[in-house]
Amino acid sequence: MAWILLLLAGLLEIGWAIGLKYTEGFTRPLPSLVTGLSMVASVGLLGLALRSLPVGTAYAVWTGIGTVGTALLGIALFGEPATAARLACIGLIVLGILGLKLVA
């Protein structure tokens, strides 16, 4: 169950990271509210996952999910570069997440 909570926390981290772009410096009320709620929910779920997962593993996986998802959505939504080197590095992060899941 802790891994499911951690996955959901990571997905919400993607949501708030992308949401920051749409808040335009927190000048847009609805995107700002959704982003803020996503932040709180993400950290809350991380906290619940930490009841049974090691903090180093959980935090690394949480930020890894957020990093990979945000980078891929940045490419898809905002036209950020999708160079081979960048995609390879994103792939390495995914491998690190999988490795932590296997050894935790």
Automatic annotation (TrEMBL):
<dbReference type="InterPro" id="IPR000390">
    <property type="entry name" value="Small_drug/metabolite_transptr"/>
</dbReference>
<dbReference type="GO" id="GO:0022857">
    <property type="term" value="F:transmembrane transporter activity"/>
</dbReference>
<feature type="transmembrane region" description="Helical">
    <location>
        <begin position="84"/>
        <end position="103"/>
    </location>
</feature>
<dbReference type="GO" id="GO:1990961">
    <property type="term" value="P:xenobiotic detoxification by transmembrane export across the plasma membrane"/>
</dbReference>
<feature type="transmembrane region" description="Helical">
    <location>
        <begin position="33"/>
        <end position="50"/>
    </location>
</feature>
<keyword id="KW-1003">Cell membrane</keyword>
<dbReference type="Pfam" id="PF00893">
    <property type="entry name" value="Multi_Drug_Res"/>
</dbReference>
<keyword id="KW-0813">Transport</keyword>
<dbReference type="GO" id="GO:0005886">
    <property type="term" value="C:plasma membrane"/>
</dbReference>
<dbReference type="InterPro" id="IPR045324">
    <property type="entry name" value="Small_multidrug_res"/>
</dbReference>
<keyword id="KW-0472">Membrane</keyword>
<dbReference type="InterPro" id="IPR037185">
    <property type="entry name" value="EmrE-like"/>
</dbReference>
<comment type="similarity">
    <text>Belongs to the drug/metabolite transporter (DMT) superfamily. Small multidrug resistance (SMR) (TC 2.A.7.1) family. Gdx/SugE subfamily.</text>
</comment>
<protein>
    <recommendedName>
        <fullName>Guanidinium exporter</fullName>
    </recommendedName>
</protein>
<keyword id="KW-1133">Transmembrane helix</keyword>
<keyword id="KW-0812">Transmembrane</keyword>
<feature type="transmembrane region" description="Helical">
    <location>
        <begin position="57"/>
        <end position="78"/>
    </location>
</feature>
